[in-house]
Write a structure and sequence with these properties.
It contains 7 helices and 5 strands; from the N terminus they run H-E-H-E-H-H-E-H-E-E-H-H. The chain has a 5-stranded antiparallel sheet with strand order 1-5-4-3-2. Strand 4 and strand 5 form a beta hairpin. Helix 2 packs across helix 7 and helix 5 packs antiparallel against helix 7. The longest helix is centred in the last third of the chain and has 22 residues.
């Protein structure tokens, strides 16, 4: 009995390390960063979440290679990019429901590439909005962005 339990724990623990925390939506695209990034950007704008800022964090970090030495990119990531988006109509709806939730605006989607696979990451705003009178509108926002990200990954993978 103890051997079975130990075997089960040895199997399940590594799997749990691969899963994103529940507060983060993670979608892996079997496509390089350039294709995935373009698909994500287009899908978000098609969903009326306008890109207000883009940052190539990986390139910025690379500029600190000399200063950071061995601490630079220990996971050997091939790219890190961020897309900051906003939908002003939703911002208005959030401000009407709970002005404190404007701390969520604008929202951010990050992309991380390693070995030709791009991980799309989105911090779920409903986790922050839990218990707020604005939860319904924030749930709608999260659903819209999540659907756009899933569509973008499918497009980047050629599905």
């Amino acid at each position: 009995m103890k051997k079975r339990l130990l075997a089960w724990l040895l199997f399940i623990i590594p799997l749990s390390a691969l899963a994103a925390p529940p507060a983060i939506l993670r979608i892996d695209a079997k496509a390089p960063m350039a294709e995935t990034y373009q698909a994500v950007s287009s899908a978000l704008e098609e969903a009326r979440f306008w890109v207000v800022f883009e940052a190539d964090l990986g390139a910025t970090m690379a500029g600190f290679a000399e200063r950071w030495g061995e601490d630079l990119n220990r996971n050997a990531l091939d790219g890190i990019r961020s897309i900051v988006v906003c939908n002003v109509w939703y911002a208005n709806q959030v401000s009407n429901a709970d002005p404190d939730l404007l701390a969520l605006c604008p929202l951010r989607v990050n992309l991380v590439e390693k070995d030709g696979v791009t991980r799309v990451l989105f911090a779920r705003p409903t986790v922050i909005a839990a218990g707020s009178p604005g939860i319904a509108v924030v749930q709608e926002i999260e659903d819209e962005i999540s659907a756009a990200l899933r569509a973008a990954v499918a497009a980047a993978e050629g599905r």
